[in-house]
Design goal:
Elements lengths: L1 H11 L2 H11 L4 H8 L1 H4 L9 H11 L2 H12 L6 H22 L4 E3 L2 E3 L1 H24 L8 H22 L4 E10 L4 E10 L6 H24 L1 H4 L12 H9 L1 H4 L12 E4 L2 E6 L3 E3 L1 E2 L6 E2 L6 H34 L4 H24 L5 H23 L11 H31 L1 H28 L11
Antiparallel strand pairs: 1-2, 3-4, 5-6, 6-7, 8-9
Helix pairs in contact: 2-9, 2-10, 3-8, 3-9, 3-10, 5-8, 5-18, 6-8, 7-8, 7-10, 8-18, 9-15, 14-15, 14-16, 14-17, 14-18, 15-17, 16-17, 17-18
Amino acid sequence: MTDRRNCNRFREVNIFVYILVAMFGTASWLAVNGLWVELPIMVPHLPEGWKLPSYLTVITQLANIGPVMLTFWFLCCKYSIPEKTLVYVILVVGAAACLLLVFFWKNTSYVLGTNHSLALLVLQFFLASVDCTSSVLFLPFMSMFKTQYMSGLYIGEGLSGLIPSLVALGQGVGKMTCQNISVLDTTTNISHNEIQPEYQDPSFPVEHFFYSLFGMVVMSGLAFTLLNYLPYCKRQHVKVKEEPSDEDFINSFNLNSDFCRNYTTFSDTVHNPSMVNGSSQTLLPNNKKVRTIDIYSGSVSQPAPQQTEIRRRTYVYLIILIGWINALGNGVLPSIQTYSCLPYGANAYHLSATLSSIANPVACFGVFLVPVSSSLVIGILVLLGTSLAAFIMLMAVQSPTPLLYESVAGPVIMVMSWILLVLLMTFSKVSIATLFRREGRKALFWCGVVTQVGSTIGALVMYILVNETDIFQSAPDCP
């Protein structure tokens, strides 16, 4: 029975279009993720040293001005914004910033009497603005495709972190050896030996890495163009045909013309669409019903009564979960990964970072194979993920001597905890976004807004805890 359902899902999805959706999704956080994984090679050449990550964190949060402005635009224009044009704008800005980094990432300027990597910081702002804004643009765009394609977008978002990591891995980022070095104490003029990390030279320069990011953003833009204008891809756009003889629909449509105007996609021309066995069912304002056309067979379906109060409660509940998931996944946990993993060794850290990056797109594809629409099940998955996050947080607080840090089981438990955490949280996040896809374009927009709000709150809280308190203590690279 399960195999039959999976076969049906594959039949409903065009593999080529699904791949294009994933390629388009890679632009979501590609540039910022790429800059972060390249830091170990860049830092020795820049005046900020290892203070640079804290600068980048603040700049990334300032870049949220992009989604804030877009949200006001969205509200003032009554949910009518030129999404396609804006997506092209941010893709062009992102590609240009990546290309400019090739030539200017090393440039420094004096600001208030101190030497700073001004060009890098300014370009980082544009990159972060692009990536932050993508959260509230890419999701509404997906309302023009079938629900099954939502997981493809999130697979691309997962690849936006995995691909730069693999490129950096091939470059040799993080490869080091521990050397016994003689260090002179300037106060006593006495030398003593210390074990310090010595990083190996990369296999190719930073400039080539930024060229690769530029190329991937360009490919994402090409995928977006094909999704919009290639006739083969346009067949996967979901549309609805209104019945002019249905008086209730016409009256409701006229009353809500501001919301429906200028949109031809299925999810834009209805208020609360949901998919049941491939047919669309719609509940319009004031609980008025409309018959719609089955997008697969073309047959007319009659919607069943729906309870808007329960739906509203579920909607708020899922919105809260989305904010919580992204606060943990994009704000809290990335800030403490080194504190939780490095006490167990450099291998444990690199394995947790790499395998959790792989787990992200795997979980997204899992939603495609085994979709979950129960808010109770999603809540249980989030609770399990939160429990793992609490365990990881506890180990980070205990750094540099957490539980089992001298045991063989310690690194295994920590790596598995990170993998399971990413699997659970990503699966839950994509499942919620899929449910919002059924609710329409407006719900997807607010899903993107709350995603960014949660990420920002989590990042700001952790920035204060990490930089302004002594709660977290780093483990040495060479024990």
